[in-house]
Amino acid sequence: MAHKHKLFNGKTLGILTGGGDTPALNSSIESIRNRASLLGYKVYGIRKGWKGLLGEGDVIDLTYQPYDGYYGGTALLSSRTNPFPTSKNPESRVPQILKNIERYGIDVLISIGGDDTNGAAKRLYETEGIKVIGFPKTIDNDLRTKTMHEFGGNEIEAVLCPGFPSAAKAMMELTMHLRTTAESHSRIIVLEVMGRDAGWLTGSAVLGGAELALVPEYEITKERKDFFLETVKETYMRSPKKNLILAVAEGVRWYDDKKQDVDVVYASSEVDEFGHPRFGGISGVIASDVSNKLGIEARAQISGYYPRAGRCRTYDRRLTATLADKVVDLLLREDYGQMPVMKSIVPFPKVEEFNTSSIDMGSIGNKPLPDAYYDIQTFTFTDAYKDFMTHILGVPEIKEFKYDFPVVIPKK
Ligand code: F6P
User: Fold this and answer.
1) Is 0.70 topped by the overall pTM?
2) Closest CA to ligand 1's atom 10
3) Contact yes or no for 249/193 (Cβ under 8 A)
4) Do 213 and 342 fall within a single domain?
5) Are residues 179 and 74 in the same domain?
6) Are residues 73 and 177 in the same domain?
7) pLDDT, tens digit, 9 for 90 and up, residues 102-129
8) For residue 190, what are the domain limits?
9) Of the listed 21, 140, 142, 289, which one is catalytic?
10) Do residues 359 and 374 both lie within one domain?
11) Which of 194, 250, 268, 305 to mutate to test the pocket of ligand 1 (most atoms within 8 A of CB)?
């Protein structure tokens, strides 16, 4: 009764999360839920992505429940369920989804996801007239958001997806921590970073001090591999403490001497319902090539789920709240088939609704690293990338133990 006069009183909004989780999903859910409740919506959570709308449905009521948006991951659970027919699942699940949307009385659906989840949402909007609003998420940061970055008088099309800032911060910190063990053993550490198709997250290891990086956007052919190994050796020899951290994206395409071919390293031969295989293990392959060909001790470290795990960091908290403010605007204008985005890369205090915009979900898709962010000649990220990242993470403070102890010469 209390919210009798609210605009959307009597309407229900459903939220789902699909695909790989991020530390900012609960923050997104909480921010959207709070705002939608103020507008008068009853807010339902659909569990396990699109899977929660199959069969009898799996739906919970979030309306007056306490919610911890700082806690990472998603309390709504996630899956990689595809509503549309695929080779793995040839049957269309669209009729079941439509039936459950009707059964549960869901008027508007917010799909929090990457290209796959939001791509499916958009198709449901276009073909079935389901009222959807997409909400971005991915630690890979490769979902096109048309977020512009002004650097050196140029406008670069960058990307900013909730989940990436927290993951990037964790990756940066992990790289800083690895330094002490690399130094102690005069080793090369090959640090593998999630990112199937794009190197956005790999770059955050460079902010944490990694000297060289390889990204999926530029394959390592036989010639490039020789050149890369030479660069590794030179960089290692030049380093004062004889150690090095090489950041490599899991999706790097690397020349295999035995197969005489360039390929990624697969963790499993299985593909998910959107046709994606699982990558993993490239760091081991590169570390063994480095040891064998350069005679320098190298170790592999797979960061795996580490950047995806843990609490939502401050930038992401603000980003999700701001994009949720934009969701309010879209709801009020009944502008469906849209996804809220930041218009430009701005520092923390400017992450505000007036700097947001929305893009048509039809134009979402994957966005690799812009050429301006990675230098293929030096295998490093450019100043433009570093500028982009320092807007999000601030200027990293890399701790160093600078020592130059005098060597003791024996008396005899
Ligand atoms: O969400 C994307 C991602 O983080 C990729 O970088 C990675 O390849 C994938 O998730 C792995 O996810 P999972 O093992 O949960 O299927």
Assistant:
1) yes
2) 20
3) yes
4) no
5) no
6) no
7) 999 999 999 999 999 999 999 999 999 9
8) 168-304+370-393
9) 140
10) no
11) 194
